[in-house]
Design brief:
The protein is of the alpha+beta class and 70 residues long. The chain has one domain (2-64). It has 1 helix and 3 strands; from the N terminus they run E-E-H-E. It has one helix at 30-42; strands at 2-10, 16-22, 55-64. It has a 3-stranded antiparallel β-sheet with strand order 2-1-3, with helices on one face. Strand 1 and strand 2 form a beta hairpin.
């Protein structure tokens, strides 16, 4: 089963953007992710369509099971 860390950030004008990271390490804690995202927001290290993220909306791990077609 493939795992992806999804990090949803709030932008201006009620818009959002999602950062995805494949295969996050086992046991990754929410506070670790939030610390990194807070630093990205504080330093304005990310720009999406000319807008900087202003807050973290949600973070979660998405599990996807792939099934081959017969």
């Amino acid at each position: 089963m493939a795992k992806t860390l999804k990090m949803v950030l709030t932008l201006a004008e009620s818009k959002t953007t999602t950062l995805s990271l494949a295969n996050p390490k086992e046991g990754l804690a929410k506070d670790e992710v939030m610390a990194v995202l807070s630093e990205i927001i504080e330093k304005k290290a990310l720009t999406v369509n000319g807008m900087n993220p202003t807050a973290v909306k949600e973070v979660y791990i998405q599990n996807v099971e792939e099934q081959a077609l017969a």
